[in-house]
Design brief:
CATH class of the largest domain: Alpha Beta
Order of helices and strands: EHEHEHEHEHEHHEHHH
Number of domains: 2
CATH architecture of the largest domain: Alpha-Beta Complex
Mean pLDDT: 82
Helix content: 40-55%
Structural class: alpha/beta
Number of strands: 7
Shape: elongated
Largest sheet: 7 strands, mixed
Strand order of the largest sheet: 3-2-1-4-6-5-7
Low-confidence stretches: 316-320
Length: 327
């Protein structure tokens, strides 16, 4: 039987928060009559986080958990939770009590009644230091411009998805903050936003540092490139190669024409030979790079077409085409 909601919660060193968060989620779910499961992922904790998860399962079997042998990161934790989720609506949230479970019913309603593929939380009023809020604003602005998705807070841990979305997106590296972008490239374009409460951290301290910003920016470039050109790399490499080749070819012709003109038309002597002009070598390099980029695009196109021929495209519904079971 399919559940109404799956809640996925990555956690690292959050032993104080787990009992309080679990009780809070239980109260919300039971008061609204939801069938549910809560999937904790212990992302290499060094305290008693796993032991607290085990206790929650003993009290309520709706609480389940995975334990990583080391810290693999939030993206790996979400990916594991997505694979296991059985709920029609999947909610992700952080384990540090800064996300409020009271937001769950409205997120569920927006998915089920307003038919969003994904709803992202927006921490409009944040309880974080400037060292976190300023970089966050910069990356949110950059992501909006590059992706064309006008969300205020891509990195908010509190999000809701349809089950079909989480089963068809892959997150790795630092790409958890760009799941709306990944979902859009996969064809899930109905993306909404909800202002959510951001609570002050009650226990422990933040597990993220400045280095995540650099990795996150590189992942944004990766997502953008792969999303746009994964199935048509010739459009990228071929375009750059053609521009480079034509620019080099044009300047080569120009230099040769100046030499011919000087010898046979104006009967003047050039101060330097063609091979002594820096522009000649720059033009030659541009031609060579253009050819290399074009060939790179051609080879990548052949590989992409080979992969496409083996690919099963995402089908989200069938009618009159049910598979027949063998007798």
């Amino acid at each position: 039987m399919k559940l109404d909601i799956s809640v996925i919660i990555p956690a690292k060193d959050e032993q104080e928060s787990i009992p309080e968060l679990s009780q809070w989620i239980s109260r919300v779910m039971e008061s609204h009559g939801f069938s549910y499961e809560v999937i904790f992922i212990d992302d290499g904790s060094t305290d008693a986080t796993w032991e607290e998860m085990v206790k929650m399962n003993e009290v309520n079997p709706c609480f389940k958990a995975f334990k990583f042998n080391r810290n693999f990161g939030k993206a790996a934790a979400l990916h594991t939770g997505f694979k296991a989720a059985q709920g029609e609506v999947v909610i992700t949230m952080d384990a540090d009590l800064q996300d409020s479970p009271d937001e769950i019913p409205e997120l569920y309603r927006m998915i089920k009644e307003e038919h969003f593929d994904l709803v992202s939380g927006w921490k409009k009023k944040r309880h974080d230091p400037v060292s976190k809020t300023l970089p966050s604003k910069f990356f949110n602005y950059t992501t909006r411009k590059i992706s064309g998705i006008y969300l205020h807070d891509f990195n908010c841990g509190l999000k809701a998805y349809t089950n079909i979305v989480v089963k068809n997106v892959s997150v790795y590296g630092e790409m958890h903050r760009y799941i709306p972008v990944i979902a859009k490239w996969a064809g899930f374009t109905k993306i909404g936003e909800k202002v959510v409460e951001h609570r002050e951290r009650k226990y422990g301290h933040s597990k993220f540092g400045w280095e995540r910003m650099i990795r996150g920016f590189l992942d944004l470039l990766t997502i953008t490139f792969v999303g746009k050109f994964a199935n048509r790399p010739m459009h990228f490499f071929g375009s750059l190669g053609t521009i480079s080749f034509l620019a080099g070819f044009f300047f080569t012709v120009k230099i040769i024409w100046e030499k011919i003109s000087a010898l046979f038309i104006t009967h003047t002597t050039l101060k330097r030979d063609i091979t002594q002009q820096p522009a000649f070598f720059l033009a030659l390099i541009a031609v060579v790079i253009g050819v290399q980029l074009f060939l790179t695009g051609f080879i990548a196109e052949l590989m992409a077409r080979q992969n496409i021929s083996k690919k099963d495209y995402l089908v989200i519904a069938k009618i009159g085409l049910e598979e027949k079971k063998p007798n």
